[in-house]
Amino acid sequence: MSASNTPSPTILESTNVAKFYDTGTSEHSSKSKRFQYLPPWTTPYVIGVGGPSGSGKTSVAAKIVSSLNVPWTVLISLDNFYKPLDAEQRKRAFRNDYDFDHPSAIDLNLAYEAILNLKSGKKTTIPVYSFVEHNRIPNKNITIYGASIIVLEGIYTLYDRRLLDLMDLKIYVDADLDVCLARRLSRDIVYRGRDLDGCLEQWERFVKPNAERYLKPKMKDADAIVPSLTDNGVAVELIINHIKSKLQQKSEKHLKELIELGHSDLVNIVEHPSLHELIPTNQVKALITMLLNKMISRYDFVFYFDRIATILLTQVLSDIPVYEKCTIETPEGITVPNSLKCDFNQITAINLIESGDCFMHSLKKTIPNIVTGKLLVQSDSTTGEPQLHFELLPPRIANYNMVLLTEAQMISGASMLMSIQVLLDHGVKLEHIKVVVFLATEISVRRILNAFDGEVDIYVGKLVTKDELNKCDWAKARFVGAKYFGW
Amino acid sequence: MSTEPFKNVHLLNQSNQLVGLYTIIRDKNTSRPDFIFYSDRIIRLLVEEGLNHLPVEPLTVRTHTDKPFDGVSFMGKICGVSIIRAGESMEEGLRDCCRSVRIGKILIQRDEETAKPKLFFEKLPEDIAQRYVFLLDPMLATGGSAIMATDVLIKRGVKPERIYFLNLICSKEGIDKYHAAFPDVKIVTGAIDRGLDENRYLIPGLGDFGDRYYCL
Lengths: 487, 216
What we know:
The complex is a heterodimer.
Chain A: H1 9-12, E1 45-50, H2 57-68, E2 73-77, H3 87-94, H4 108-119, E3 124-130, E4 135-144, E5 149-153, H5 161-166, E6 169-174, H6 177-191, H7 196-215, E7 224-227, H8 233-261, E8 275-277, H9 282-292, H10 298-317, E9 322-329, E10 335-342, E11 347-353, H11 360-366, E12 371-379, E13 386-392, E14 402-410, H12 414-425, E15 433-441, H13 442-451, E16 457-464, H14 480-485
Parallel strand pairs in A: 1-5, 1-6, 2-5, 6-7, 8-16, 11-12, 11-14, 14-15, 15-16
Antiparallel strand pairs in A: 3-4, 9-10, 12-13
Helix pairs in contact in A: 2-8, 6-7, 8-13, 9-10, 10-11
Chain B: E1 9-11, H1 16-26, H2 32-52, E2 56-62, E3 68-74, E4 77-84, H3 91-97, E5 103-110, E6 117-123, E7 131-136, E8 139-140, H4 144-155, E9 163-171, H5 172-181, E10 186-193, E11 195-196, E12 202-203, H6 209-214
Parallel strand pairs in B: 1-10, 4-5, 4-7, 7-9, 8-9, 9-10
Antiparallel strand pairs in B: 2-3, 5-6, 11-12
Pathway (chain B): Pyrimidine metabolism; UMP biosynthesis via salvage pathway; UMP from uracil: step 1/1
Protein name (chain B): uracil phosphoribosyltransferase
Keywords (chain B): Allosteric enzyme, Glycosyltransferase, GTP-binding, Nucleotide-binding, Transferase
């Protein structure tokens, strides 16, 4: 999927005059928040698929995932949450004498916490379980972040009340237990190399009684009961259509919020203390003129972009926090008390793909060993909804005291909004985030100021105000990255 | 007595960053690679500030979307003139902003007999009289060699108000002495130190800039 060259008109237009947006719960703010931005993954759509062993849950879940064809869909098996066994339990497990089909075999608390974390948009790691070792695989985890759909699949998915409460859709895959046994036997014997007697014994001792005792009663909590796979095509299709329409509503709501974020009664954002536009000195004006000139060669464009980027970074760094006050001595032996020390290694830069990389040269010229990361947020070509595709962030990112988010142009501001949210989800403090952009529209700046209470500093080379936007329609077209890299 | 506040002296904004950069280059424990890197960063800021003073004229360009943009472009030509050897350390910073800029060279050494500066060598662009000139020398201590170099420029027809003298550290008495000779030359600097010691070194200064940049 490639970013379109023209901005999505739905996001840029601001015809809606609603100023107040009901933020719902705002647990962490004592002051009343007028606006709030919730990226799509803050409220992922959670689908639970439960049912007895051998009923065809996995097939149903897989079919849902493949039919939705949304890249931010995560399929999580409840099997990952099997409790690690102690030595004694492990011996029994190897003798087929351990009840894996009892709800208590699964760490439902951990599963609940993981889904709760994901549901609130946080980066979450889940364990990986080895059926060979009957233990969690040490140092091996699955990290999940930025999912917009989560499919949780497993026998006891619909067992825990707390998990049920987190789900938007609960599906029970039902099959006659005899059918389940038949499927289970062929699977275990053919694919898992078990012997018939062991399988039958397990079925009689554990699987069947547990299913009747703990599972069947849970059917009443399901939103939909799907028959076993062979004849469930229509049922699954109905469910998929339902999910699609829910997702559509969600993305429409999200886009509406984005539009509302562009409104504000902030009369003059140019004077907002968090917005730092480069002072239009002769230099800056001349550089911008050259960069806006369509006829400029790529050779010159790269050179002059690097120059203005360096000026912009200098401006950002002028506010670098003082690391300590110290006394130094010059080579002549003269002491200089109260010298300010700044630590340039306390800064990291995250480049937004596609055009944040334009800042790489100037960043390295300014801080040679700077630690950098990357983020890819793109607007969905059909809905216009921004989505997180890729994140590669430096380890311990929350420890830096300046995290620069660089992008050549900010048009709707949607991807920058999401990127800021990604940093917040990784524990970066709002006041440590610095947005660094060469060209920005007023609406994009407003969105960021509104969404984060004006607490994120925004550094722009040139701001194009709402009134100028018609005359300066180049600010709505992405051209900087293309010209810089020669796409 | 110093003539503060100085006229025609442009001191860079004393931000945390700038003061932090000076802390690094003044510190005797700073390694040579760091000294070079952080000096270069200050030099870049000096060059950018100097360029800001050059005049511009209106220019309308056609943008990506074919809408016109009313901007500006620089008027006139520039060149650099570095005082050998320490001044040459500032050439790269100038080239980083102005590719293939012409750079003249002036070598001035102290005459051992008279203890006065003596001009050993000069090579300047032929049309220097028509150009804005960035005179490059990292330290303005007594002003002796800077005054002699400026004299060379003016004798070649450069107008004093078109000369920008870029340096990293000035002494107050150096500024006064230099401006007594050339009041119209603009000095662009990042730090004004309190004075000179008995050996005519800047206090606190940073040692011998050329030695630290090129050899030590």
